[in-house]
Structures are given as structure tokens and as C-alpha cells.
Amino acid sequence: MWKKAIEDALHVTRHNIERFEGRFPHVSNGDEHYMLNDNTEWTAGFWSGILWLCTEYTRDPLFREAAASTVDNFRRRMERKFIFDHHDIGFLYSLSSKAQWIVEHDAAARKLTLEAADMLMKRWREEAGLIQAWGRQGDVNNGGRIIIDCLLNLPLLFWAYEQTNNEEYRRVAELHALKSRRFLVRGDDSSYHTFYFDQVTGEAIRGGTHQGYHDGSTWTRGQAWGIYGFALCSRYLQSAEMLETAKRLARYFIAHLPEDEVAYWDFDAPQTPTTKRDSSASAIVACGLLEIAGRMDEADPERKVFQNAAESSMKSLVNHYSTQGSDSAEGLLKHGSYSVRGGDSPDDYTIWGDYFYLEALMRLERDIPGYWYDRESSV
Q1: CA-based, 20 to 30 A from 217: which of 54, 118, 177, 184?
Q2: Is 299 a residue whose pLDDT tops 90?
């Protein structure tokens, strides 16, 4: 089943290389066509990551040349310092230049990835003890704001520490992870999307949301970032506490899934026949569950629970949410939501959903775990 789904994804991606003509897909908007950009969005790295996954799986020069070309584009973006007023530098460069380093040990790709890590470090606010999510330093609304998505940007800093032995990378990543664990994870194992702190003193102000149903709700993609992000922090930090946090969030996610095991866009949104799903959230969680299971003792009975949950959700995605068999589709996964609350691509393709869907398939079929950590140096 996984192999057939991968072959379908390869087919779509081959066509997309020609269709996209060097541009980067972001989301669709009510049709089967991706909106393209010139590497201006926070999502551009996911297309690069898809191409590197396809390269690893097939060793086809077509995929490799397209993947390397995206890294060249990211190098130009770094040279221009173009649109870096956000924390998603990890999303951009972990799946592009770091992926090339992992696959090919390309020295120039390693250098570029370290430059990206340094760029992300500029968003560390020592006074508040956090990595600022959005906006420039001192921004009135965002100066002391973190969002749960950042947990998937932290692997860039942990990797940089492994490469250089510069303790500052690890210190910043660990402190931000600990703050996220303390303030974004609620007592019932749900999560806030975002949290605000006084940017001068670091004093906690309140939790909230940007894309969820309301401030106290659980936006499912945010919960997904937490599951995978804390699992990856556990790997880098060798932390049982971080792994347990990932498990707590995972148990909550699994317990609140509808019958077909693919998440609605927010766990607290009223569930009706027209309530939007977020297939991308379930794809992210599938990767996170497989990461968690891989870090557990084989004798632990819950290990199989997480493994089975990942496989069951992926079967539903493949059978009911994928575009397999379509020659016109540009996306791999239907019914992803960018921002239901904002009315922005609420039921469409999302390039991150496509990436995590393919990463989960690759993990299941070939044990290819994506590009969040260097397989030779990470425990």
C-alpha cells in the first residue's frame, strides 16, 4: 500500500517539476492548481524537501537536479536576506540545504545551513528568554510572542550545535523548548497555538491563537507541531521529559479524532457535515507518532499503540484524502486547511501537508525519516 502511494506521489512530483518551472508551491485556492511564488513564503522549503525525498527514494537525476536547483535558490535568498522577519528559517533551510547535506554531504550546503542557523539565532530575545515568532525586535504586538510551530524550527539549531560544538545553539533551542513545554502545553494535554510574554521582563501574559477556533481551543495543526516537535527535541536532548510531553499531546490528538481518523481543523470547532478537516495536521502527526514509537522500548505496550495509530491514519489519508489516480492534480493530499479562521485556503492543497504525507510514507516503506536530524550524528 505504501509503495503504491509513493509511486503516485512520484508521478505527481515529476509533472510538477515541469509545471512549476522553478517556482515554489504554497497552497491551492479552490481548484487543483497550486499558487506559486519566487521563494517568498515560509513554506518554500517543503517543496525542496519533497524533491530530496524523491531523490533518496529513486536516485533519479531528474529529482536530484530539481532539488539542487532549489538549494541554489535558497542560497540567493540568504544572500539577499529576503523576508527573514520570522522564525520559519528552520522550515526553509532544514528541508533544502540541510537535506542536501544529509543526502550528499555537500560542504557548500552545510555552510549555507549554518548561515541559516545564525539567522534564526538573531531572533533570540535574551531578556524574555524566547525566540520571537514574527516581526522585528520590539514589535508592539509580536515582540514577546511564541507559537508552537517553532518547535519544528529548533532542529536547525540543534543540528548546528552538533556540527560546530557551539553551545549557544543548543542553549537557545533548549530554553525555547522548555518555555514552550511550560506555557503552550495545557494541563489536559491540549495546547495553545501562541503565548504572549512581556518582551522586557519575560513575564507570562496569556495564551491565545492566531488560526484556531478561539483562544482556548486546540488548533489541530498546532497540536501536531507539538507532537512532532517535542519528539524531535527529545531526540536531540535525550530527554525523557520531552518525549513524555510528545506522548501526552499524541494521546490527546488520537483520543479526539473522528471516525475516519483524520483531524478536523480545530478540536473545539462545532463538528457538522461541513466542518473543515486538516489533512496536513494528520500527516504531521503520523510522522510524529512514528518518531515517538521509534524512541520507545520495544517492550513498551504503548509503542504499538502509537505505531498503529500512525498507520491507521495514513491508510485513511491514502484511501480517502490523496489524489492518487489523478493526472491533473498538483497536490498529493486533499482537504488541508491553511487558515479556516481567516478564510485562506480552508479546504485545499498545502505544500507542507504534501511533504509530511510523503515523509510518513517514506518512513513506513523505507525508514527514510526526513531531514530534521542528521542520521549519522543524532542518537
Answers
A1: 177
A2: yes
Average pLDDT, the chain: 97
Interatomic CA distance for residues 108 and 82, integer angstroms: 20
Cβ–Cβ < 8 Å for 83, 59:
no
Tell me the per-residue pLDDT of 219-254, one tens digit each, with 9 for 90 and over.
999 999 999 999 999 999 999 999 999 999 999 999
pLDDT for position 377: 63
- Cβ density class 129-139: b for 16+ within 10 Å, e for less: bbbbbbeeeee
DSSP state of 151: G
For residue 378, pLDDT beyond 70: no
Rounded-to-integer distance, Cα 333 and Cα 353, Å: 7
Whether 88 is a known active-site residue: answer: yes
- CA distance linking residue 79 with residue 34, whole number of Å: 27
Distance CA 322, CA 335 (A): 9
Q: pTM here?
A: 0.98
Q: What is the pLDDT of residues 74-113, one digit of tens each?
A: 999 999 999 999 999 999 999 999 999 999 999 999 999 9
CA–CA separation, 123 and 118 (whole Å) = 9
Closest CA to 307 of 326, 292, 325: 292
Q: Out of 88, 189, 348, 354, which one is annotated catalytic?
A: 88
Say whether pLDDT at 202 is over 90: yes
Crossing angle of the two packed helices 220-237 and 279-294, in degrees rounded to 10: 20
What 232-235 contacts at long range (C-beta under 8 Å, 24+ apart), as own/partner pairs, is: 232/151, 232/152, 232/154, 232/155, 232/158, 232/291, 232/372, 232/373, 233/151, 233/154, 233/158, 233/173, 233/174, 233/177, 234/295, 235/291, 235/295, 235/373, 235/378, 235/379
Q: What's the CA gap between 288 and 260, in Å, rounded?
A: 19
Indicate which residue of 72, 85, 139, 149 is catalytic: 149
DSSP 225: H
pLDDT confidence of residue 184: 98
